[in-house]
């Protein structure tokens, strides 16, 4: 299959291109598109065959459900059994935006899309290309992140092309995404609502609207939760993993620098190629040949936006080992560390 890549200006969208992409989706084809979080791999959410194609293109287990993307609130009601008042409030504050909500589904959503579950994940993305595409398609686009299963999510069209060229019909290139980590997932089939995946919208931002919110214990890194299964099937898999062995080094700032430099010396003496992921504030303190500055701890949005891209860059550099600082920042730290620790297979070194 020849994958057509179209460059679009999000501020001045080519209507003919969107029309063409919409036709591909209506005919059961696959189109990757930008959202504000990461690039999505879209198919008609109401067409079981399209969902099956998505799983095949990504190499994704078919029991890992897809998020249904909508562009208008009226499209929510036909696919869900009920919309709790709290969910309505959250939608009015955060949709369109980096928020996915879980509801009990109606029969309109095929089991292929919901991974066999009786619930459905719904999101209204805040990106002009995504919204235009959903409307051109007719209202419902199923879209997981547009990466090969297990690899870091794509934040640029080039990442999508690396993984999926030849396997999908079209890629809409709208430039680099704004947020860089996938949406926050909140489950409204329980009360109080439960965070199934941390993201840009953190717990306290949710609590401003909802009052008490719980966090799925399966996604916390605490030792006592080691054997708790996350409720979102996708959070159970090893994910985002770079080809090199990645370890996160935790501790006081100076101790971390010393530890990483010591580990680097040792690895280099064994003939290994080492990469380091560090914040602006400390990146010049490392002796490794390949140090990637991921952004400032003061503006952790940059760290969030760069993370997946940096992991992919190390694949290209061909390093054997990666040591990363830990980024427990107040604003997006939980989301950043959730992805980083998954990428590291939870391998933590105490400095
Ligand atoms: O930001 C995002 O959410 C991006 C963009 C493209 O919108 N999409 C995305 O989709 O991250 P994906 O498929 O890579 O991740 C969806 C996650 C998976 O962990 C999946 O298991 C979970 O959502 N999920 C989907 N439906 C669910 C359901 N009914 N119950 C629990 N978890 C669900
Ligand atoms: Mg994904």
Give an overview in words.
It is globular and about 60 Å long. It contains nine helices and 16 strands. The strands form two sheets. An eleven-stranded mixed beta sheet has the order 1-8-2-3-7-4-6-5-9-10-11, with helices on both faces. The protein has two domains: 4-183, DHBP synthase; 245-350, Threonylcarbamoyl-AMP synthase, C-terminal domain (Rossmann fold, 3-Layer(aba) Sandwich). It is of the alpha/beta class and 351 residues long. Strand 2 (31-33) and strand 3 form a beta hairpin. The structure holds threonylcarbamoyladenylate and magnesium ion.
Structural class: alpha/beta
Computed Rg: 20 Å
- The SSE string, one letter per element, is EHEEHEHEEHEHEEEHEEHEEHEHE
Name of the CATH superfamily of the largest domain: DHBP synthase
Bin the strand percentage: 15-25%
What ligands are attached or bound here? threonylcarbamoyladenylate, magnesium ion
Largest sheet: 11 strands, mixed
How are the SSEs ordered, and which strands pair?
Elements: E1 4-7, H1 15-26, E2 31-33, E3 40-44, H2 48-58, E4 67-69, H3 85-94, E5 99-104, E6 119-123, H4 128-137, E7 141-142, H5 157-164, E8 170-173, E9 184-187, E10 194-197, H6 203-210, E11 214-215, E12 245-250, H7 253-269, E13 274-278, E14 290-293, H8 300-317, E15 321-324, H9 333-343, E16 348-350
Parallel strand pairs: 1-8, 2-8, 4-6, 5-9, 10-11, 12-15, 12-16, 13-14, 13-15
Antiparallel strand pairs: 2-3, 3-7, 4-7, 5-6, 9-10
Helix pairs in contact: 1-4, 8-9
The structure holds threonylcarbamoyladenylate and magnesium ion.
């Amino acid at each position: 299959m020849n994958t057509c890549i179209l460059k679009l200006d999000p501020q001045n969208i080519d209507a003919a291109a969107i029309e063409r992409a919409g036709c591909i989706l209506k005919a059961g084809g696959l189109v990757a598109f930008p959202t504000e979080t990461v690039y999505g791999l879209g198919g008609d959410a109401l067409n079981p065959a399209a969902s099956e194609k998505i799983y095949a293109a990504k190499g994704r287990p078919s029991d890992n459900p897809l998020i249904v993307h909508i562009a208008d609130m009226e499209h929510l009601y036909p696919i869900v059994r009920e919309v709790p008042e709290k969910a309505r409030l959250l939608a009015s504050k955060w949709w369109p935006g980096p928020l996915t909500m879980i509801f009990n589904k109606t029969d309109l959503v095929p089991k292929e899309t919901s991974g066999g579950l009786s619930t459905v994940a719904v999101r209204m993305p805040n990106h002009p290309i995504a919204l235009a595409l959903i409307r051109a398609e007719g209202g419902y686009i199923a879209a997981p992140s547009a990466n090969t299963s297990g690899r870091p999510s794509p934040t640029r069209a080039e990442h999508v092309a690396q993984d999926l060229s030849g396997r999908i019909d079209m890629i809409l290139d709208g430039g680099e995404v704004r947020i860089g980590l996938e949406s926050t997932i909140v489950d409204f089939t329980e009360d109080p609502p439960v965070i199934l995946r941390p993201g840009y919208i953190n717990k306290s931002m949710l609590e401003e609207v909802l009052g008490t919110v719980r966090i799925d214990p399966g996604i916390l890194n605490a030792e006592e939760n080691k054997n708790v299964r996350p409720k979102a099937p996708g959070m159970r898999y090893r994910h985002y993993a770079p080809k090199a062995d990645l370890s996160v080094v935790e501790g006081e700032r100076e101790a971390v620098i010393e530890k990483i430099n010591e580990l680097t010396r040792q690895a280099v003496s064994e003939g290994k190629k080492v990469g380091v992921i560090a914040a602006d504030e400390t990146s010049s303190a490392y002796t490794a040949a390949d140090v990637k500055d991921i952004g400032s701890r003061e503006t952790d949005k940059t760290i969030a936006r760069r993370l997946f891209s940096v992991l992919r860059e190390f694949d290209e550099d061909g390093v054997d080992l990666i040591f990363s600082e830990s980024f427990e920042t107040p604003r997006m730290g939980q989301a950043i560390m959730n992805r980083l620790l998954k990428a590291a297979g939870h391998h933590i070194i105490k400095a």
